[in-house]
Prior knowledge:
Elements: E1 6-9, H1 19-26, E2 32-38, H2 50-59, E3 63-69, H3 77-83, E4 87-91, H4 97-106, E5 110-115, H5 121-124, E6 133-137, H6 153-162, E7 168-172, H7 179-185, E8 190-193, H8 195-198, H9 203-215
Parallel strand pairs: 1-8, 2-3, 3-4, 4-5, 5-6, 6-7, 7-8
Helix pairs in contact: 2-3, 7-9
Amino acid sequence: MTPSCRIAPSILSADFAALAVAIDLVAPETDLLHVDVMDGHFVPNLTIGPPVVEAVNRHTAMTLDCHLMMTNPGDYLEAFRAAGADWVSVHVEVGDTAELVAGMRRLGLNAGVAINPETPFEAIEPWLGQVDHVLVMTVHPGFGGQKFMDEVLPKLRRIADAAPDHVVVEVDGGIDLRTIGLAAAAGATCFVAGSAVFASPDPASAVRRLRQLAVA
């Protein structure tokens, strides 16, 4: 693994009835595990909360990258930190970004901001120098297995060009063997992959292959 190219398997696409097994399959190939948190308000779906994050944290030493698709993430930052979250990203679309970033900093979290496909670059630009990572959505958030939106690539490039060198540019949505090269060419350095990993008969090999394509 190299910090300049990280694959973050998304447990949203894993078998929740055998989540520990799924995590163990990818752990040798990556140190970052993506956790999609959906509240049924900001996005039209419900997933998991701090209790599952806590259970995952007890099982693995992997870095837990929690993407909070919530209308009120500030109410839950402490709970996710206590549960074992390491990275947390909140959406610029919910507002109060300065307060949320400050809250993540106080808790010692790796602070991130996320941006939806339709949201313009200008909405995230002021925060690029104030966070540790930025999460660029290349699908509409809320459901796994969606098709990568190529039209987001120019914005991804603008974000990657404008972000300071220390900021990790993460991309989430439709990342697979075709699209990871496109995202990498646009400047992404961290790639969230769900079905491309966990729908594979060999998730570890899938992670390796994705990384190879990202650095090709």
